[in-house]
């Protein structure tokens, strides 16, 4: 009887609700009351799903950042390499221009390493006897003189820089033509020696090769006067100069062929040929 009564009541409520919608308000009230329970019941599942998505996105972002860092490093390396190649190309073009200016047989060489000697300034280049390098050959860069070949081996050669204390170079002042000898003074500086205290010399004067040694072509830039101390010992002036070339910096150099000796008397007399000089008179008997 209970089952029949409950089934009958259920069917009656279903029919009445379907026809007249009397239980709509009740259903809405129950929905409002059960919504928090449904949300609370779904939170663990939603939390687990959100955590999974978070860690997946985190791993993806980490992979993406690592890839971007690799690409950035590769691009930076390519950019640095490109800048190095541009500088090297510019230096090679300048060396070729220097070879055209000096109008002498010359070849390009690379500096392999610097000699580990605290008392000298020398470097080793990758050209030697098999490449036609001769002892005493002048070595320049695109700006001026940097040294001289002092030892030659079959595949490489040793260059003594002009900043070495034992290296001497005959030079002259471009402005006045005064001739002197340039020595290495250490610490990358050069020194003009054996000049009188009243010599006409100023800070900033250009020093070039004189060519009197027959090795270095005349007129090649060597240094610029940095300081002039006229209170030197023994009546001589102390003159410090700064090299104009990258003496201890550049890795690409130009090896010149040694020139022919120059007669100091001819150089002092000027450019007049020997044939134009008056002949000496024969002595009378």
UniProtKB/TrEMBL annotation:
<keyword id="KW-0133">Cell shape</keyword>
<dbReference type="InterPro" id="IPR042175">
    <property type="entry name" value="Cell/Rod_MreC_2"/>
</dbReference>
<feature type="coiled-coil region">
    <location>
        <begin position="51"/>
        <end position="105"/>
    </location>
</feature>
<comment type="function">
    <text>Involved in formation and maintenance of cell shape.</text>
</comment>
<feature type="region of interest" description="Disordered">
    <location>
        <begin position="260"/>
        <end position="285"/>
    </location>
</feature>
<dbReference type="InterPro" id="IPR042177">
    <property type="entry name" value="Cell/Rod_1"/>
</dbReference>
<dbReference type="GO" id="GO:0005886">
    <property type="term" value="C:plasma membrane"/>
</dbReference>
<comment type="similarity">
    <text>Belongs to the MreC family.</text>
</comment>
<feature type="compositionally biased region" description="Low complexity">
    <location>
        <begin position="264"/>
        <end position="276"/>
    </location>
</feature>
<dbReference type="InterPro" id="IPR007221">
    <property type="entry name" value="MreC"/>
</dbReference>
<dbReference type="Pfam" id="PF04085">
    <property type="entry name" value="MreC"/>
</dbReference>
<protein>
    <recommendedName>
        <fullName>Cell shape-determining protein MreC</fullName>
    </recommendedName>
</protein>
<keyword id="KW-0175">Coiled coil</keyword>
<feature type="domain" description="Rod shape-determining protein MreC beta-barrel core">
    <location>
        <begin position="111"/>
        <end position="257"/>
    </location>
</feature>
<dbReference type="InterPro" id="IPR055342">
    <property type="entry name" value="MreC_beta-barrel_core"/>
</dbReference>
<dbReference type="GO" id="GO:0008360">
    <property type="term" value="P:regulation of cell shape"/>
</dbReference>
């Amino acid at each position: 009887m209970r089952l029949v009564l409950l089934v009958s009541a259920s069917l009656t409520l279903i029919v009445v609700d379907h026809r007249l919608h009397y239980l709509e308000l009740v259903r809405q009230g129950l929905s409002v009351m059960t919504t928090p329970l449904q949300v609370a019941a779904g939170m663990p599942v939603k939390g687990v799903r959100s955590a999974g998505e978070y860690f997946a996105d985190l791993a993806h972002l980490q992979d993406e950042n690592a890839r971007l860092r690799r690409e950035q490093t590769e691009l930076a390396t390519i950019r640095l390499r490109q800048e190095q190649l541009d500088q090297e190309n510019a230096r090679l073009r300048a060396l070729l221009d220097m070879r055209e200016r000096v109008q002498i047989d010359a070849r390009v060489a690379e500096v392999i390493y610097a000699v580990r000697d605290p008392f000298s300034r020398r470097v080793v280049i990758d050209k030697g006897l098999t490449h036609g390098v001769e002892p005493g050959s002048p070595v320049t860069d695109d700006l001026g003189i940097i040294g001289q070949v002092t030892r030659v081996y079959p595949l490489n050669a040793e260059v003594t820089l002009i900043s070495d204390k034992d290296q001497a170079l005959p030079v002259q002042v471009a402005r006045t033509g005064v001739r002197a000898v340039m020595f290495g003074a250490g610490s990358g500086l050069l020194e003009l020696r054996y000049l009188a205290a009243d010599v006409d010399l100023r800070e900033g004067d250009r020093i070039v090769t004189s060519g009197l040694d027959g090795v270095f072509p005349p007129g090649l830039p060597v240094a610029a006067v940095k300081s002039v101390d006229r209170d030197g010992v023994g009546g001589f002036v102390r003159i410090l100069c700064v090299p104009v070339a990258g003496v201890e910096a550049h890795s690409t150099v130009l090896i010149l062929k040694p020139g022919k000796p120059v007669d100091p008397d001819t150089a002092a007399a000027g450019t007049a040929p020997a044939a134009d000089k008056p002949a000496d008179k024969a002595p009378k008997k």
